[in-house]
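dumping this here before i forget
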Amino acid sequence: MSLRAVNISVKLGARAVLCGVSLEVSPGELVAVVGPNGAGKTTLLRALAGDLAPASGGASLDGRSLRSWASLDLARRRAVLPQKPSLGASFTIREVVELGRFPHEDRGDDDSKAAARALATVGLGERADDPYTQLSGGEQQRVMVARVLAQLDAEHDEPRYLLLDEPTTALDLAWQHRLLRLTRELTSAGVGVLAVLHDLTLAATYADRVALLVDGRLEVVGETSAVLTETVIERVYGVRATIVEIAGSDLRLPLVIGGAPPPSSPARGANHRHNVEQVQPLETRV
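structure:
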């Protein structure tokens, strides 16, 4: 059981956006996708969501091609939080969250309770009747998080997957961590999570594995400590970094110092690639 990309290549016009990328997300793990702007992170997420048809390769959900899934069945199994969600009409907060319950309308689940649980989780339960358009950007993001939580709230045992595209961008520091702690709780409940992140410290703190994309190619995928090293960060991003070990835990967090890397560090784009390897996830998380 997994959500899997196999040798996916995507072209936009004449430009290759993804080149032979393979990646797997299993129930119960959080995989962070990181990389510079334009690396193909969002394109990979859209291909795994079934929203984009690759030029070659393909994506599958639990052993079946995404193309073979009926849209309603697919929506019951995976939820997607896009980078810039938008609504074409004015809704209350509750109505936005209840949009996530559409795939379950004929299954006998209690949709109103599922929506209420999701709103309570993001701290907006008491504001359910407020207009969505009057919220701040961060509050709107929390509503959209509640929508995908409501979509995945099912009284059935199918494996479920959550795809998040830069979910922390509009959130303040506290809510960035609350959201990613929430995703860890979802993985404990058996949900497979893929999150596109720019903050390498958040990725190192919460992800079981990290996939690093560079120029449309999968540079390396593995345990966070094996991927987010000083050498890799300096080579890929062109900034100096140091790894800080957190006492009393197994966490090794990248601290980006900024500025140019030391002269001995190879420049980004040099003809060097790490071997792609799968590493067992860390056992201790904050």
